[in-house]
Design brief:
Layout lengths: L12 E2 L5 E2 L27 E8 L3 H12 L5 E3 L11 E4 L1 H9 L3 H5 L7 E6 L4 E6 H4 L6 E4 H9 L7 E2 L4 E6 L5 E5 L4 E9 L6 H5 L6 E13 L9 E7 L2 E9 L2 E9 L11 H11 L5 H8 L7 E7 L11 E2 L2 E3 L14 H21 L1
Parallel strand pairs: 3-4, 3-12, 4-9, 6-14, 12-19
Antiparallel strand pairs: 1-2, 5-8, 6-7, 10-11, 11-12, 13-16, 13-17, 14-15, 15-16, 18-19
Helix pairs in contact: 1-5, 1-9, 2-9
Length: 371
């Protein structure tokens, strides 16, 4: 339901535009930024490596930013805390804004050849009644929609970078500002870097965002099972997004390639659903129980999903309020992607916005460097 002014709480303080709001609720209250000694003087030494641009995180946002910078002749270092690319997860949906970015950085055609273009969407009730269906091109002739395997997207981006760009097993331990505007990054492996520019692409639970004063992302009130069904002899579905809605529950599936189909189940759940479950057999069992009386093809998709593709996650986001939330940059430290604006997957824009962030920031950085 859309919010109207009658639903707004009574005002008692002002934002920077002079608009009054009530006492800030805890779910969007920013955390105080770590206070640092403003006079600290950090100089490069034998134990400190100087870098021009350091990107923290080798996910979609981090790798796309590094590739964008390299396309303009600007080098960077990418720090990744894992020992290798984190290629887990299933698929993500890219709309035309995401594909425009991939075109701009030169990898779109490599990906297009591997994934089906989705033609439209069908929305059904749990008993099989069609509630709505449409073609994407009928809504927007320029629209382009494909479900892309996260693993392949990351590997494609990484392959555009020189091998030494991404430094694995490099977890950020501490971040500190210097008096000359540079930033000291201390890693848990003992490495210390002094960076002119730091780009935080370190995901939903970003330590850099916390250091900049952003609040923790908040639980959205529902969780999701996700997986990737594999049909070695060819999957049987038309290239459409298929949504199924029930009471407090929704599910969907979308073909990714001629042999793979991404599926998800979202359901309302308490904010404390208990300990994290990692056993694939138990995850599969719980997912099937949620849709036990739903269309058979959904059950079969779950059965055909390899263990490593099945996951369950609590969905979170962070609302950004103009004049109230911290800015996306502090000095020469800036956030990109989920580190800045985590969003729930039902928007279908998480990866697209991360890609857009990367090229917009790159353009601004390139102009600043040249000037």
């Amino acid at each position: 339901m859309a919010m109207t002014t009658s639903h707004m709480p009574r005002p008692s303080f002002y934002n920077s535009q002079g608009i009054r709001f009530s006492q800030k609720p805890s779910w969007f209250r920013a955390q105080p930024r770590t206070k640092l000694n403003p006079s600290v003087n950090i100089k490069a030494s034998a134990g400190v490596r100087k870098e021009d641009i350091v990107i923290v995180g080798a996910g979609i946002a981090g790798l796309a930013t590094a590739v964008s910078l390299r396309r303009l002749g600007i080098g960077s270092v990418v720090l990744e805390q894992a020992a290798s690319l984190r290629t887990g997860g299933t698929s993500l949906t890219l709309f035309k804004n995401g594909w425009r970015v991939l075109d701009a950085i030169g990898v779109a055609d490599t990906l297009r050849g591997q994934f089906l273009e989705i033609q439209g969407m069908a929305v059904n009730s749990e008993d099989g009644r069609e509630l709505r269906s449409f073609k994407f091109k009928d809504e927007d002739q320029t629209q382009e929609v494909r479900a892309v395997e996260r693993r392949i997207l990351l590997e494609t981006l990484a392959n555009e970078l020189p091998p030494e760009t991404v430094r694995f097993s490099s977890k950020l331990g501490k971040i500190q500002s210097s008096e000359n505007g540079e930033t000291l990054l201390q890693l848990t492996n003992g490495t210390t870097l002094l960076a002119k520019i730091v780009i935080g692409c370190d995901g939903i639970r970003s330590p850099i965002a916390k250091w900049m004063g952003f609040s923790e992302p908040k639980y959205a009130g529902y969780s999701a099972f996700r997986g990737l069904g594999v049909y070695p002899d060819g999957q049987p579905f038309a290239a459409n997004v298929n949504y199924i809605y029930g009471r407090g529950l929704r599910a969907g599936y979308v073909p990714v390639s001629p042999t793979k189909v991404y599926w998800f189940i979202c359901y309302n759940s308490p904010s404390s659903p208990g300990p994290k479950i990692t056993d694939p057999a138990l995850l599969r069992k719980q997912a099937k129980e949620l849709v036990n009386n739903w269309p058979e093809e959904l059950i079969r998709l779950i059965d055909l999903s390899p263990d490593e593709t099945i996951s369950k996650t609590l969905l979170v986001d962070r609302w950004l309020w103009p004049g109230l939330s911290p800015p996306a940059s502090t000095g020469k430290v800036v956030l990109v992607g989920d580190a800045w604006h985590p969003m729930t997957p039902n928007l279908g824009q998480g990866a697209c916005c991360a890609l857009e962030d990367s090229v917009i920031l790159t353009k601004k950085l390139a102009n600043a460097i040249k000037s």
